[in-house]
């Protein structure tokens, strides 16, 4: 298990620290640290604080913030940035951009679970400038070049 430093910025979230719901879970649910409900009209988005800050510190790791499938599928509540990327050197509050892509208004309740976070490995690359690549089977083919079936 990887140990990551976490700061509780709002004491109200101290009882709801991110935790894996089951032994096999990949995602850690993040909650809305709100004083009052936030109504998202269709098409509207809001940046919702979580009351938490995290310093991953290891450049070989990052965190991704992803929608929760139930909220996304049933209510159209996804992320305004589609996916949130948390850099290993970020020490600010974890924020969730909630976007109502649905057709009905949705109310985010204080401390409701609004998104999930996955800790992932990262490879930092450096680049070597070349004039020609070594051959590959695909070459420059893309965007459907392998056919439809
Ligand atoms: O959903 C998100 C996405 C990002 N962040 C924080 C952590 C991340 O490390 C930082 C910067 O994110 P990103 O690089 O995606 O944003 P940017 O628009 O490129 O800002 P910057 O110039 O600060 O890198 O913002 C969040 O709290 N939630
Ligand atoms: Mg950036």
UniProtKB/TrEMBL annotation:
Official protein name in the record: Deoxyuridine 5'-triphosphate nucleotidohydrolase
EC number: 3.6.1.23
GO MF annotations, alphabetized: dUTP diphosphatase activity
EC class (word): hydrolase
Binding-site residues, substrate: 68-70, 81, 85-87
Cofactor(s) in the UniProt record: Mg(2+)
Record-linked InterPro entries: dUTPase, dUTPase-like, dUTPase-like_sf, dUTPase_trimeric
Family according to the record: Belongs to the dUTPase family.
Catalytic activity line of the entry: dUTP + H2O = dUMP + diphosphate + H(+)
Keywords: Hydrolase, Magnesium, Metal-binding, Nucleotide metabolism
Biological classification of the source: Bacteria, Pseudomonadati, Pseudomonadota, Betaproteobacteria, Burkholderiales
Start and end residues of each dUTPase-like domain: 18-147
Pathway(s) per entry: Pyrimidine metabolism; dUMP biosynthesis; dUMP from dCTP (dUTP route): step 2/2
Protein's job: This enzyme is involved in nucleotide metabolism: it produces dUMP, the immediate precursor of thymidine nucleotides and it decreases the intracellular concentration of dUTP so that uracil cannot be incorporated into DNA.
């Amino acid at each position: 298990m990887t140990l990551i430093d976490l700061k509780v910025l709002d004491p109200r979230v101290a009882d709801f620290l991110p935790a894996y719901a089951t032994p096999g879970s990949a995602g850690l649910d993040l909650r809305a640290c709100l004083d009052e409900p936030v109504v998202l009209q269709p098409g509207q988005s809001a940046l919702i604080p979580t009351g938490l800050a995290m310093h991953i510190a290891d450049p070989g790791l990052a965190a991704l913030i992803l929608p929760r499938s139930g909220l996304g599928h049933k209510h159209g509540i996804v992320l305004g940035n589609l996916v949130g990327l948390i850099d290993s050197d970020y020490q600010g509050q974890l924020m969730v951009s909630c976007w109502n892509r649905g057709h009905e208004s949705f109310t985010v309740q204080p401390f409701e679970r609004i998104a999930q976070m996955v800790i992932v490995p990262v490879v930092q690359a450096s680049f070597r400038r070349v004039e020609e690549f070594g051959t590959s089977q695909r070459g420059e083919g893309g965007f459907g070049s392998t056919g439809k079936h």
